[in-house]
Amino acid sequence: MSGRRLDHTAEAFAFIEELDRLASPQEIIDAMERSFARFGFENFIMTGLPHPDQRIESLVLLKKWPLGWYQRYTRSGYDRYDPVIRLCRQTVQPFEWSEARYDPEANPKAALVMHEAAEFGMRQGYCLPVHGLNGFEACLSMGGSSPDLTPRTKPALHLMAMYAFERARLILAPSPRPNPLTPREREALRWAALGKSAADTGEILGVTERTITAHIASACQKLSAANKTQAVAKALQHRLIEM
């Protein structure tokens, strides 16, 4: 593993440790601004995804967006045409904005949203969909003029974003809970947080890869997590595992 990769991992865990000391939404916004800026992101928004009868501004948890863009986006109902929002509803995997495809001739309003976002300095971006097993849908979308998006930075950004989302949700609506995870589920998530595959963890713990995969799947179900990274973020946030 290269030194640069280690830097990304260290950045992610330093960010997580910092968030644990914070107690207000504004403190989280400030911490996100500092940490995401190191990856070239200047703006971000954390929000639920609206149903047809909802307005997106009622679902925004945290944001650091240019005021003019936020006003234009909400006033014009751009979330109805935003290709990033549309793709958020279709996948649980993080994606670059450029992967949110649209036909500018068939969907001119989608093209307008992306063009105007670029006018406010958000030419490229990265989006983390958040889907709960209860149907809850949200996302953390971040943008900048030239962000650092590589196979080495994306895993760190994914974990940071998921943890920030869980921390913000906990502060805004705290709900203490007992630890629902078994010791093996906790071990599987702890090794996953350290970047180990199911095969690696199975070898460490002396069990099969299939067994570790089953533990992680069970942990995801208990934590209402759509994937392993979200489960790790929730487990760290709620102190269900220790590093």
From TrEMBL:
Keywords: DNA-binding, Transcription, Transcription regulation. It holds the Pfam family GerE. It comes from the Bacteria. Residues 174-239 form the HTH luxR-type domain. InterPro entries: Sig_transdc_resp-reg_C-effctor, TF_LuxR_autoind-bd_dom, TF_LuxR_autoind-bd_dom_sf, Tscrpt_reg_LuxR_C, WH-like_DNA-bd_sf. The keyword Repeat does not apply. This is LuxR family transcriptional regulator. It comes from Microvirga arsenatis.
